[in-house]
Amino acid sequence: MSTLLLRLVFGGLMIPHGYAKLTHFAEYQSDFLNLMGMGTNISLGLAIFAELGCSVLLVLGLLTRLALIPLIITALVIVFSAHEGQILGDGEHGFLYLAVYVSLLITGPGQYSIDQTLFGRSATADRRFV
Hints:
The protein is an all-alpha fold. It has helices spanning 2-23, 25-29, 40-60, 64-82, 92-107, 114-119. The protein is built from 6 helices and no strands.
């Protein structure tokens, strides 16, 4: 039940960030972080994919571990690029997202997920691994 709560809360809280970036793409693109020289448009598109698309998958518990990878990368960028590693300052929220996303990657989607319904025990944490 706790994994469901974490998925709903932290996935649900990230969705509005991605939706805002999607609906205001033209406004965001000029000032958005140019990650690794990819350009602001590509960086913004990847952020929207993670924050909106992967967060929806996380809330549903569908392909959870795969969806968490872009979310973890996004949280790392938020903390270490956008906020220069200030985990107790401006980057605190990003660090909290990062901690929860890594925890969910380790534990899996939990019992109340589409992954569990479709794939059974393999969707939850493998007890030999944890």
